[in-house]
């Protein structure tokens, strides 16, 4: 998203989606900045993201913000990465936009997730920054990994969906390998605190380690 500065604070704005994002802002600064944001972006949705710093709960409550995500951050680098050797029955392939049936199967799985900004349609529209890997079991696509490649050295798995730990491990491994093959030096995975037990073993098997936390809020600019 395009980045602008207001009162020395970076704001990421998507005019088309009527959406903006602010990262790691103090309560005092948010309270001071909010009237200007309402004047410029009234009716826009806003995400407020806090990485490894306490969220200013009182200031967020005053603007009507509610918790969107409460996550633990995991990270893997080429030095800590342990590639997974997939069993013969685990088939993972890159998703192609030219295959409508495969894309529709991925979309059905992905769009069923709740509160997902990056829907399959938005992923399709920004295809240059995404890599999608699909998991086949027989004739069916039963899982996938969604990897975002940022402009810097960072990449992030936005969603890894599969029905078993072995499948999740294979998908995390495939996504991380792709990131490193594209010159990235780390891969981040944000795991909801409620899902830590389910995801941790698969992440650890590939070399991910806990490295902090992230808490996101959403509000309407009004």
Radius of gyration: 19 Å
Strand order, main sheet: write it out.
1-2-3-4-11-5-10-9-8-7-6
Instruction: Count every beta strand, where a strand is a DSSP E run of 2 or more residues.
Output: 11
Helix and strand pattern: EEEHEHEEHHEEEHEHE
Structural class: alpha+beta
Query: What low-confidence regions span 5 or more consecutive residues with pLDDT below 50?
Result: none
Helix content: 25-40%
Shape: globular
Number of helical regions: 6
Mean of the pLDDT scores? 93
Structure description:
With 222 residues, this protein is an alpha+beta fold. The chain has an 11-stranded mixed β-sheet, with helices on both faces. Helix 1 (27-41) links the parallel strand 3 (19-23) and strand 4 (45-51). The protein is globular and about 60 Å long. The chain has 6 helices and 11 strands. It starts with a strand and ends with a strand.
In short:
With 222 residues, the protein is α+β, with helices and mostly antiparallel strands. 30% of the residues lie in helices and 37% in strands. The chain has six helices and eleven strands.
């Amino acid at each position: 998203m395009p980045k602008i500065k207001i009162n020395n604070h970076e704001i990421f704005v998507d005019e088309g989606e009527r959406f903006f994002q602010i990262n790691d802002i103090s309560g005092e600064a948010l309270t001071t900045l909010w009237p200007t944001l309402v004047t410029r972006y009234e009716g826009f949705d806003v995400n407020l993201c806090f990485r490894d710093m306490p969220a200013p709960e009182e200031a967020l409550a005053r603007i009507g913000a509610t918790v969107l995500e409460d996550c633990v951050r995991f990270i893997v680098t080429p030095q800590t990465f342990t590639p997974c050797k997939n069993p013969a029955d685990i088939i993972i392939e890159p998703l192609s936009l030219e295959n409508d049936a495969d894309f529709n199967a991925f979309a059905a799985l992905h769009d069923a997730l709740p509160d997902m900004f990056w829907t399959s349609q938005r992923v399709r529209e920004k295809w240059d920054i995404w890599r999608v890997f699909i998991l086949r079991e027989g004739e069916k696509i039963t899982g996938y990994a969604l990897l975002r490649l940022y402009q810097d050295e960072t990449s992030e798995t936005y969603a890894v969906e599969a029905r078993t730990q072995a499948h999740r491990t294979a998908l995390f491994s495939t996504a991380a390998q792709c990131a490193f093959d594209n010159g990235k030096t780390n891969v981040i995975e944000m795991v909801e605190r409620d899902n830590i037990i389910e995801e941790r073993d698969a992440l650890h098997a590939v070399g991910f380690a806990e490295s902090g936390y992230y808490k996101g809020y959403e509000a309407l600019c009004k």
